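Notes from the 1:1 (GR / supervisor)

We went over the backlog. Supervisor wanted to see one worked example end to end before approving the batch request, so GR pasted a single chain during the call. The sequence is below; no edits were made to it. Supervisor asked that the structure be written out right there so they could see what the output format looks like.
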Amino acid sequence: MPQAMKSHFRPHVLLAGIMLVFVLVGCLQAQTHGIDVSKFQGEIDWAKVSKSKKVKFVYVRATEGTTIRDAYYKANVDSARKHKVLVGSYHVYSSKTTAYQQFANFKAVVSKKKQDLIPVLDIEGHHSGRLDMARVNKLLELMEREYGVKPMIYTSEQVYQEHFQGKRYRAYHIFIANYRGTPAVRYTLWQHSNKGRIPGIAGDVDLNRFHKKRGLNDIRMPKKVSKKESTTKNKKPDTAQQTVDTAKQVG
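Structure output shown during the call:
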């Protein structure tokens, strides 16, 4: 460097920059991440998966259409929960059968008692431009009635923009698949890669992360309240009539 040039090196600026990097890395590591799996991942070693910092929850493929049931569903759900990985289940939508038929398939496979996370209706991108929304809405309604919570809708940005931007869907959590960059639409979960690598899983797996303003509490199943707890909360012993009303509410 020529002598005439003065150095502008500022140690305190460099230190501040290094500290900022550590803060950002810490924030990224603190984020809650998850995966989604199906029979295509084969047999999974959930003991190993549960040790990964990238996996706090999993969505497991349960059913597709009217007759397809994932052969690995039960093993994945039971083993993941055994190793303290939060579990949710998803159904892949079909345009070939009715909402009632598809719901019957999903209900027969997915036990409400084993769900830590709200169910997901998976509507793949190939449905773009030709989605039967009456059928979709009925399937969402049936799932909500059975599991006591609105399902999350998984789809592409294009399908979301075509069909799910209206007021009717504002109360639903949205799960967007986009492998090129941050989604430009409203979302709760973002499937940002289909090439993830996790110890315990042979081959690629989908990786998911939350919107910065969302987290696990947004997609947890509603807490179960026993009849005894409900009676204690709602009982009003002021009058005999109020006691009768409380009993009706519990029953």
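Supervisor's comment: The beta strands are 33-37, 57-64, 68-69, 86-92, 120-122, 152-156, 174-177, 189-196, 205-210.
Batch request approved.
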